[in-house]
Amino acid sequence: MEDLRTQLEELKKRLEALEESIDPVDEVMLSIKMRLKKKLESLPELDEEKAARTLKALANPDRIRILKMLSEKPMGFKEIKEALGVESPTVSHHLKLLVKTRMVKKGDKYEISPDGRLFLRLLEIITALEEVEE
After folding, report:
1. Could you tell me if residue 75 is left (phi over 0), alpha (psi between -120 and 50 degrees) or otherwise beta?
2. SS3 of 61-98
3. Which of 28, 78, 98, 111 could staple 104 via S-S, CB 3.0–4.6 A?
4. Continuous H helices in the chain
């Protein structure tokens, strides 16, 4: 029994040393992997039509800019409008779609949701992999 405890203590020390040596980028990737795994375990089967509608709703540079801005801080409607330099109805439309797809939460100000952060990170990873041609 004592030998088992000694081995367990040694394993704990090795794990601590390993955790300390993890690169911050690797830490982010591990975090993403864990969150994705958790979400995927509880997801129903993929609905291709719904997935296509969601991707289409998010496939707009201004909506991605909004996600990037909100990832830095919560913002009010007027702040978003001024930062984008577009008309109010356009901003309203973008925000409505982002809220509908659960990428953004609306309260006193607009905030990026955990899903929005994950989606933004996935976009960064995808765009870093290769250039996509239409």
Report:
1. beta
2. HHHHHHHHHHHHCCECHHHHHHHHCCCHHHHHHHHHHH
3. 98
4. 2-20, 24-41, 48-58, 61-72, 77-84, 88-100, 114-129
Backbone φ and ψ of 78, nearest 5°: -65, -40
How many other CB atoms sit within 10 Å of the CB of residue 91? 20
User: For 56, which DSSP code?
Assistant: H
φ, ψ at 13 (rounded to 5°): -65, -40
pLDDT along the chain (134 residues), means of 10: 73 73 67 76 77 85 96 96 95 94 94 91 82 60
Cβ-in-10-Å burial (0-12, 13-18, 19+) of 116 comes to: buried
From the number of C-beta atoms within 10 Å of its C-beta (0-12, 13-18, 19+), residue 63 rates as buried
Q: Is the pTM of this model over 0.70?
A: no
97 Ramachandran zone, left/alpha/beta (phi>0; psi -120 to 50): alpha
Q: Which of 96, 35, 30 is nearest to 88 (CA)?
A: 96
